[in-house]
């Protein structure tokens, strides 16, 4: 990676961390502190916890497409301003209803697609996976950091203080985007990074992608469902908010180690069995939570089991989506995936709030646990995922038709899938890396033979 790529990756990762911290820091505290509002109700708490997910889900793809027309940085800046406005509304709120409004506004700053597209624009094709990996690691890191920092911060500045800190962090991102993030010097083909509207409807019904998309929806439903109950359980056991990290930290560290062990076994076990084990861990832990957990060590053990399964799926589902997506459609596939992901957070908050309103919170956990175990039987399609590489090649049709070029590329050894985009003068290839000769492919694509 050159200096531009490193600067772009690091600065965009920081933008992502600060933004996701703001979304997630209220997750482990809102269920406890929301009771201070005069219009408190469990349903409103659920909407406040997961409300951002609905606007994120609705605007994720449109904002990404808009960045292709108006430019990446203007859309990112507008999204950050919306996010800061939502944080300020929630910070000034004197009722839980206005906190919900603030959370919906926070979610309206749906800049994930634009950020990823800008990351693609400032990186060369060979280095783009590294840039994306740095940002991906930052996203995962932000969740764990938020879970640890949220309760500590809430103890000192309260819930409204967290929202104001979030607003300040969003505003601090603005000079970072304007001055630190490089201006695009190497435009990535749209299909690599952005959703293409014409692809969306076709990919929604793709059987394997649908399984993976519903999986991430369910996964984020579960994490939201859990954090609607978990802070209250810890408070009932005598732990103040500023002490919750003492439980979270060792559990998260132990779960990451267990997740790493399961990932090392995946090449032997296969995707289907590994994913099945992860869903079994989630289902078992939720069924355990649905009973009365009296002992702290039992609660910690169930948390460890839950986060082992959660971490594994959260890390691997995006990779499987990327592998399954047709050539040249990865941007669209990942945009749809993110939409399902955020919608799951909204569903989790809404379902948990409704269950608490009806005084059956443990029933929602029991049903979720059974659903996880049943979902294992839907994973047969994951057997068809492969370890593949992707190439974006410049094309020169010359006297050839698109069909002739596609046929010539398809005859090369190792080529699995081809998408030609004549308007952009590129060909997207999905290949088996071991048997594919990229130099020969470039010669065919550029009409040098």
UniProtKB/TrEMBL annotation:
Keyword Cytoplasm: no
UniProt entry keywords in alphabetical sequence: Cell membrane, Membrane, Transmembrane, Transmembrane helix, Transport
Compartment list: Cell membrane
Signal peptide annotation: none
SUPFAM superfamilies cross-referenced by the UniProt entry: MFS general substrate transporter
Domain Major facilitator superfamily (MFS) profile: 8-386
Cross-referenced Gene3D superfamilies: 3.30.70.100, MFS general substrate transporter like domains
Pfam families associated with the record: MFS_1 (PF07690)
Record keyword Cell membrane present: yes
Protein name: MFS transporter
Organism whose genome encodes this protein: Fluctibacter halophilus
């Amino acid at each position: 990676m050159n200096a531009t790529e490193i600067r772009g990756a690091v600065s965009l990762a920081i933008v992502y961390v600060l933004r996701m911290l703001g979304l997630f820091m209220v997750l482990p505290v809102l269920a406890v502190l929301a009771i201070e509002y005069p219009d408190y109700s469990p349903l409103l708490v659920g909407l406040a916890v997961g409300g951002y997910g609905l606007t994120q889900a609705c605007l994720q793809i449109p904002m990404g497409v808009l960045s292709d027309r108006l430019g990446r940085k203007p859309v990112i800046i507008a999204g950050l301003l919306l996010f800061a406005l939502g944080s300020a509304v929630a910070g000034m709120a004197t009722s839980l209803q206005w906190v919900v409004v603030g959370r919906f506004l926070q979610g309206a700053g749906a800049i994930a697609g634009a950020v990823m597209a800008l990351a693609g624009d400032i990186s060369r094709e060979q280095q783009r996976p590294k840039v994306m990996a740095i940002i991906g690691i930052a996203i995962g890191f932000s969740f764990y950091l938020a879970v640890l920092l949220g309760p500590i911060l809430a103890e000192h500045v309260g819930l409204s203080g967290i929202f104001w800190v979030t607003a300040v962090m969003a505003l601090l991102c603005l000079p970072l985007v304007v001055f630190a993030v490089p201006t695009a010097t190497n435009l990535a083909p749209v299909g690599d990074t952005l959703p293409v509207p014409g692809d969306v409807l076709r990919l929604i019904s793709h059987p394997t992608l649908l399984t993976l998309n519903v999986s991430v929806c369910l996964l984020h439903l579960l994490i939201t469902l859990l954090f609607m109950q978990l802070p209250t359980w810890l408070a009932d056991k005598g732990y103040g908010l500023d002490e919750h990290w003492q439980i979270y930290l060792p559990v998260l560290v132990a779960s990451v180690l267990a997740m790493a062990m399961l990932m090392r076994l995946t090449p032997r076990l296969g995707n289907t069995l590994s994913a099945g084990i992860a869903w079994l861990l989630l289902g078992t832990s939720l069924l355990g939570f649905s009973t009365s957990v009296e002992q702290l060590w039992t609660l910690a053990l169930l948390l460890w089991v839950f986060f082992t399964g959660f971490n594994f799926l959260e890390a691997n589902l995006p990779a499987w989506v990327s592998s399954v997506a047709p050539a040249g459609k990865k941007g669209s596939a990942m945009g749809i995936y993110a939409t399902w992901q955020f919608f799951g957070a909204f569903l989790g908050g809404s379902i948990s709030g409704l269950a608490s309103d009806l005084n059956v919170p443990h029933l929602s956990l029991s049903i979720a646990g059974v659903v996880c175990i049943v979902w294992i039987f839907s994973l047969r399609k994951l057997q068809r995922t492969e370890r593949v590489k992707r190439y974006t090649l410049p094309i020169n049709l010359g006297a050839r038709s698109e069909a002739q070029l596609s046929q010539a590329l398809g005859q090369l050894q190792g080529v699995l899938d081809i998408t030609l985009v004549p308007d952009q003068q590129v060909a997207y290839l999905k290949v088996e890396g071991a048997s594919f000769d990229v130099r020969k492919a470039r010669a065919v694509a550029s009409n040098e033979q």
